[in-house]
Amino acid sequence: MKRKLGLLLVITMVITMLNGCGSNTNTNANTDADASNKKEESKSNELTVWCWDKNFNIYAMNEAAKIYQKDHPDFKLNVVETAWDDVQTKLTTAVTSGQTDTLPDILLMQDNALAKNITNYPDTFVDLTNSGIDFSQFAQYKTALSTVNNKIYGVPFDSGTAVTALRTDILEKAGYTINDFKDITWSRFIEIGKDVLKKTGMPLLSSQAGSPDLVMMMLQSAGVWAFKDGKLSITDNPVLQKAVDTYVELVKSGVLIEVNNWDQYIATFNTGKVAGAMTGCWILASVQASDEQKGKWAVTNIPKLDGIDNATNYSSVGGSSWLVLSNSKNKDLAVDFLSKTFAGSTDLYNTILKTSSAIATWGPASTATNYGIAHEYFGGQKIFEDIIEYGKKVPKVSYGVYNYEARDAIGTAITKIISGTDKDSALKEAESTVKFQMGQ
Amino acid sequence: MIKKRISMIVEYFVLILSSAIALFPIFWTFTSATNKSIDVLAGRVLPGAKLFENLHNLLKAANVGQAMLNSSKYSILTTLGSVLICSIAGYAFEVYYTRAKNMLFNVLLLSMMIPFAATMIPLYTLFGKLDLLNTTLGFALPSLSTALLIFLFRQCAQSFPKSIIESARIDGASEIRIFFEFFMPINRHTFAAGITVAFMNNWNNYLWPLIIMQTPTSRTMPQLIANLTSGYVTDYGMLMLAVSISILPTLVVFLILQKNFIEGITGAVR
């Protein structure tokens, strides 16, 4: 009897399961059919967007929708929260398999990945060059990143302008102020850093071991990248050599400590293990996590490389841009939406700056009232005004298709050099690794 | 006597130490869920008083209920389906004779060496053509037959006394009845192990659900957690709470089937 009951139970389970799959399939199919019908019906007024970060990008997109809705009351925006890595995976899968109808109308892309995706899938994105958007109003280094074959594909969004953020209370203990770090060279930075370390026991900076961010930031500050005229330039790149030397010196002098991962990196300045952070200005949101450190921070530009022509105190790390997808049934609407908001609304940037500290790369935004606000966390400094000014001076570079590969290889080379490998052989190995990946 | 006692103390010490090492990450995850983000970053191990604040933030930031429901639905369906299909396949591989079965089995084992990323795009193209994108069937199909489970059940069928099958056949039992009434109850430990492994794999499955389920309402817990870490600022207390909630179902399944799981994996035959 028990066995029969058991058998009955298993059979019921299987039938329920198969039935469940079937009915769910039908339900989902119906839902999808409904959704696609809806899409057809509302195709003139609804846009779907993929982006990440609820408090930053998604918030900005929703605020943009509110502004656009003032003149277009029927407009609807459907933001699908999708982590950046997932955006890349879904995009690659959809394009490679030819199922592009699953893609949204607009997606957000990391600046580091722009050239690669646009070059690899040129027909997937809408050429915005003659779309009516005035790209001359954006920071030129940003538009350069989404320009491929003289065509502009991305509407620049958040700024990755590099900043040096430092704890003024620690500097004060060592007899320095934030002005001592303004417009200086790396050798001076290391000199002060050693002194601060000696007097307070605190390193100035931290970095993730194996991360090439700081070195790449130094490269861009001199208007140079790991590619020159589309060709890989590692071993024959004097600026890269200098940047690597500078980074190694930072580590060996103790002015910079390396940690294992991103979480530990954030923890170093949040918990007072280091006196500062140097990367894209988006880091300022993380800097503000500790209530105890309120009013004890200040921001300035980054040091410039010694003895390098065209070296500046300005650079960029990270940031992202909006792209319109060619498969979109609402291409014109998507372009119009972006041109009236992210490329045309001072109000938008004024609103999102206040709540999310999203700093614009669109020039006219700097006239917005909130950009002149004295920031309490940064001791009353008008940091947004300063960062906008830095952003105007960031040298233009082209990241190239194999940017990630080059960054990874350079990161590995730095780790090896710090562990004792000869610099020339480590960089030579990095170059041959990237060349192999480029199929050369 | 003293020697025996010392050896017991050493034995217990080693066992307690290794258990503590194994359990510490889970303990830390749970305690971190009760702490502020900055305390988690500072490495605080002790429980804090921020559980409800983290819960409030988590519920505000993400639709945890729906993600849990989705993950549960997909995992239960796929686990039941895969255990049933793979157990029948494993049983058939052992009990029925065909000339090519060993070759076929080797091919099946070889498929374990192909990473999912390599087959993902062809699968996605195929499912797109079959109109299975955004469907539960599309979600479950690739996981319904796994080489690992078939291998597990074939090993189990190998130690299953053939005399039972033969006696049942003489008594007139059908092949389906032999499987469900004899093989399945006698090998319940292996089934428990299979369910535990399959449930854990399906619950943690990330890549396939990500690309096959396109709508936000079909988001699973691993995807929800990925989104919580994608911003410029991560709330680690809230993140650890989401992770704690996410591991609970797997923990419950394992605890319920724990005894059977161990016996199933070690190949105990009763």
Written description of the protein model:
The complex is a heterodimer of chains A (440) and B (270). Chain A is an alpha/beta fold. Chain A folds into 2 domains: 44-159 and 318-380, 3-Layer(aba) Sandwich (D-Maltodextrin-Binding Protein, domain 2); 162-315 and 402-437, D-Maltodextrin-Binding Protein, domain 2 (3-Layer(aba) Sandwich). Chain A is built from 16 helices and 14 strands. Chain A has helices at residues 2-41, 54-71, 84-97, 111-120, 140-145, 168-173, 186-200, 213-221, 238-252, 262-270, 284-287, 331-340, 346-356, 383-392, 403-418, 423-437, and strands at residues 46-51, 76-81, 106-110, 147-148, 151-152, 154-156, 162-167, 205-208, 227-228, 231-232, 256-259, 276-280, 297-300, 320-324. In chain A, α8 (213-221) packs across α9 (238-252). The longest helix of chain A is centred in the N-terminal third of the chain and has 40 residues, at 2-41. Chain A is globular. The model of chain A is unreliable at 7-42 (pLDDT under 50). Chain B is mostly helical. Chain B has a single domain (63-266), classed as Orthogonal Bundle (MetI-like fold). In chain B, α4 (64-95) crosses α11 and α11 (188-204) runs antiparallel to α14 (236-266). The longest helix of chain B is centred in the first third of the chain and has 32 residues, at 64-95. The mean pLDDT of chain B is 90. Classes of the chains: A alpha/beta (440), B mainly alpha (270). At the A-B interface, α1, α2, α3 and α10 of A face α2, α4, α6, α7 and α10 of B.
